[in-house]
Automatic annotation (TrEMBL):
<dbReference type="InterPro" id="IPR036278">
    <property type="entry name" value="Sialidase_sf"/>
</dbReference>
<protein>
    <submittedName>
        <fullName>Exo-alpha-sialidase</fullName>
    </submittedName>
</protein>
Length: 374
């Protein structure tokens, strides 16, 4: 893929110096996620974040906590999954707080799902989505179950967790194992106890082998609607990967799996590209961040790596731009720079916390900052 030429950042973005961002963890870090506790009693309001890292050569999940609304973070827990140790590969962790009991897990239980085993040689590979749980606010973690294991040498990625309307725990992930029919698709499974997973089904799929839906993220809107955002790669007329969304009333039925959904667009045709995540503001606005922002013709937009998109109508119509708190100037489909950033709206909806990654002296690092929602 050829490099695209970026344009100067808009004045409102340039006014926020890059030094405003703060390092969230001293070591290497990737794939950040952030939540606010809402079902944990006296701990409600604490902000928890996770990043992937490496300690002594083994891939781990790092859990960080803020008790001051995201101003400062402390390392409080480490998830050392043996399935990701010894170079086997582990990535793409997601962090979730149970809003209601599932099996023997009460509301407030923390869940962390991750992908392991993708670096094993193809002959021995069985990539697995793994579930870990914590009952002490992220300090200690216990392995719970294998959510899904690829039936062949092909990988699967990016597990996303949420509780559906019927109280079952749902996991979505990007699946490459359905070859030769599909290069990648998004699939879903569910569980009544967090141990036994059943009813695998396609969530988003396309008849064109090369079209790749992936990187699912789900949040509930104020009216209870489940809002699913994801990237779709290799669509004709949209180079690389652009961002789409679907909705569900029950958290299981997202409509016809072959419908690619609705594209995210601004009024002047800009669109986000790669690795989308969302947060929902208390006022109902949806805030979306992605690796890149491009113009209608695919060239880098002025706010590429510096922009959050906002929609105030449940995803309908145009999205508007606001400056991102963490600037990663002009990323270009890279493995670290602004890859899968994450957002958390403030409790009053006036600001947003962002965690994003950038390369520093050859090492991928995670930075955080908060900024206003205008």
């Amino acid at each position: 893929m050829g490099a695209l030429v970026g344009l100067p950042a808009p004045a409102e973005a340039r006014e926020r110096p890059q030094e405003d961002r703060q390092l969230i963890y001293p070591g290497g870090a990737s794939y950040p996620r952030v939540i606010r506790l809402e079902h944990s009693g006296n701990a409600n309001g604490r902000v928890l974040a996770s990043v992937g890292s490496v300690i002594d050569g083994d891939s781990v999940g790092i859990i960080l906590e803020s008790t001051d609304g995201g101003d400062t973070f402390q390392h409080v827990g480490t998830i050392a999954d043996p399935a990701g140790a010894n170079g086997r590969g582990m990535c793409c962790g997601s962090l979730y707080e149970l809003p209601s009991p599932v099996g023997d897990m009460p509301a407030g239980t923390l869940l962390w799902a991750t992908t392991t085993g993708y670096s094993v040689s193809p002959a021995d590979r069985a990539t697995t989505q793994r579930l870990w749980v914590s009952r002490d606010l992220g300090r200690t973690w216990t392995f719970k179950s294998d959510i899904a294991t690829s039936p062949n040498q092909y990988n699967a990625w990016e597990p996303e967790l949420f509780v559906a309307g019927d109280g079952q725990l749902v996991a979505l992930y990007a699946d490459e194992s359905d070859k030769p029919d599909h290069d990648q698709k998004i699939v879903q499974v569910r569980s009544r106890d967090g141990v036994n997973w059943s009813q695998p089904a396609d969530t988003v799929v396309n008849d064109d082998f090369f079209v790749r839906p992936g990187m699912p993220g789900v949040r509930q809107l104020a009216d209870g609607t489940y809002f699913l955002v994801y990237e779709v790669c290799n669509i004709e007329g949209e180079p690389l990967c652009s961002i789409y969304f679907r909705t569900s009333q029950d958290g299981w039925d997202f409509g016809d799996p072959n419908d690619l959904g609705t594209g995210v667009r601004t009024g002047d045709g800009k669109y986000p590209r790669h690795t989308p995540t969302i947060t929902v503001s208390p006022n109902g606005s949806i805030l979306l961040v992605s690796e890149m922002l491009v113009n209608a013709d695919g060239s880098h937009a002025p706010g590429n790596g510096r922009t959050i998109l906002v929609n105030d109508r449940g995803g309908a119509g145009d999205w508007r731009e606001i400056p991102a708190p963490v600037e990663v100037p002009d990323p270009n489909n890279e493995g670290c720079r602004n890859f899968s950033p994450t957002l958390l709206a403030s409790t009053d909806g006036t600001s947003v916390l962002q965690i994003a990654t950038d390369t520093v002296d050859g090492v991928c690092k995670a930075f955080y900052a908060s900024g206003p929602v205008t």
